[in-house]
Design brief:
alpha+beta, three-stranded mixed beta sheet, GSPE_N1E, General secretory pathway protein E, T2SS_E_N_sf
Length: 59
């Protein structure tokens, strides 16, 4: 199963799907990301999210 989050969405909202597994998606989350963006990623990938918070400078 493949999934690619649009670059503009990832940049603007501070969320990036790093990997998809059978049971969850690994998501990098910028420290200022809005929870609604995470809800949209969850809806789009159709899997539970495992989050890793990253500083804005590293995102």
């Amino acid at each position: 199963m493949g999934f690619e989050l649009p670059y503009g969405f990832a940049r603007d909202h501070g969320v990036l799907v790093a990997a998809l597994g059978a049971e969850h998606a690994e998501v990098l989350v910028r420290e200022d990301a809005h929870p609604q963006a995470l809800a949209e990623v969850r809806r789009s990938v159709g899997l539970p999210l495992r989050l890793q918070r990253v500083p804005r400078a590293l995102f």
